[in-house]
Amino acid sequence: MALKVLSALDTAKTQYYHFKAIIVAGMGLFTDAYDLFCIPPIMRLIGRIYYSEKDYEVPVRVSSPMVALALLGTVIGKLVFGRLGDLFGRRRVYGLALMLMVVSSVGCGFSICTTQQCVLVSLGFFRFLLGVGIGGDYPLSATIMSEFANKRTRGAFIAAVFSMQGLGILMSSGVTMVVCSIFNAVQHPKDTITPKEADMVWRLILMIGAIPAAMTFYWRMMMPETASKTSSKQPRTWKKVLDVSLSQIAEGVEFPPNPPPQYPLLSREFFRRHGRDLFSCAASWFLVDIVFYGTNLVQSVINDKFLPQRKDVNAYEDAFAVAKFQALVAVASTIPGYWATVFIIDRIGRVKIQMMGFLFMGLALFASIAAYLHDKSKKGFLILYGLTFFFSNFGPNTTTFIVPAELFSRQIPVHVSWHYGGIWEGWGDYRVRWVFIDFA
């Protein structure tokens, strides 16, 4: 049954269910981006409240760990929840990751007490837990869409899921601007540099991130488990999903009596079969994230020259300016980059987009340095800075999300034979050979 369902999924026409899966899986990435990228304006507010004696500036020794803790959590979450997803199923573990995100978002807002040190320790702890939940969501969202999509549009569908990250960045900026505008309009007295309500504003912005996570949890629990986990147990469910009769997904392949040899994850056999693919995917993702997160999460520091002087504005206007700049970058370059990949990836392929993206990202970064040093108006720098984000997303930031989901998905050993590269294959690893068929 498993092979027939997967084959039916691969050849199925694009239908309503595919778009529903994009929204449900994509809402996880939307929430991830909101929670990760709302931190720059929030650090401005925290600086206003707790560092008034230091020109309202959060020291680097404090702001850097606060950003890094969430990212450290994502690394742990990806490893832990990715493995749990293979053992216990995508839906159950995905729900656990989302619940952790909900609890952590609320916990960030209710960071204990109001003293400087206590607040920062509490916020750092809950940001770490939030990162663990976000890390769990990343691989599961990609895997879920990969296992639901057909092979003709799989790249576009997974890219569409990932593009929700751009909308999450935009939403985090939009929520920050709306909340700050409301509190700024009603504050009294008007000339207060750091209103006492500002301590409530940054907490509110963080807690709002729990809303899309909670909505995603409900929708995700309404979806069936992916085919690689339940196709042999839920044929009637997949009949509804695929809009085909049960006879069309009946098992038509006989399995030999002796199963293929098994090997553990961290074994010589695993690295012989998959080591090169695993290293290539991990190294590419590592390199692009140095740029993507490094420039996004400290965007307000990099672009301080384009923001108003803090002594001239109050806390709300300061955070509003950071969020506004972040939103403009997202609209002008980040989001278009995601959607350029969605429309083009299945036409020109993953490798070409990734190579092109890395090349133009490097050129834009080198050129932006020259523009920053020699262009007094800094307009050239802004254009090149935006191009860095465009080619990051129309390039390796998106493809590094897609390729692993296609290389290492559908972990089902099957007895099939096909011809590839002049060699007949029998029992083997279905995950890797499925990709060969797709890309041939």
Please provide a written account of the structure.
Keywords: Membrane, Transmembrane, Transmembrane helix, Transport. It catalyses: phosphate(in) + H(+)(in) = phosphate(out) + H(+)(out). Helix 2 packs antiparallel against helix 9, helix 4 packs antiparallel against helix 5 and helix 12 packs antiparallel against helix 17. The longest helix is centred in the C-terminal third of the chain and has 34 residues. The C terminus is likely disordered. The chain has 440 residues and is mostly helical. Helices cover 73% and strands 1% of the residues. It contains 18 helices and two strands. The chain has one domain: Growth Hormone, Chain: A, CATH 1.20.1250.20. The protein has a two-stranded antiparallel sheet. The protein is globular.
Q: Under the CATH scheme, which architecture would be assigned?
A: Up-down Bundle
Radius of gyration: 24 Å
Derived from helix and strand composition plus strand pairing, the structural class reads: mainly alpha
Please write the CATH class name.
Answer: Mainly Alpha
Number of strands: 2
Placed side by side, the strands forming the largest sheet appear as: 1-2
Poorly predicted spans: 244-256, 410-440
Mean pLDDT across all residues, rounded? 77
Q: What's the structural domain tally?
A: 1
Tell me what portion of residues adopts beta-strand conformation: under 5%
Number of separate helices: 18
Largest sheet: 2 strands, antiparallel
Helix content: over 70%
How far is it from the N-terminal to the C-terminal residue, by CA? 25 Å
N-to-C SSE string, H for helix and E for strand: HHHHHHHHHHHHHHHHHEEH
CATH topology assignment: Growth Hormone, Chain: A
C-alpha geometry: globular
State the fourth-level CATH superfamily.
Answer: MFS general substrate transporter like domains
GO molecular function, one term: transmembrane transporter activity
Domain Major facilitator superfamily (MFS) profile: 21-440
Subcellular location: Membrane
Catalytic activity: phosphate(in) + H(+)(in) = phosphate(out) + H(+)(out)
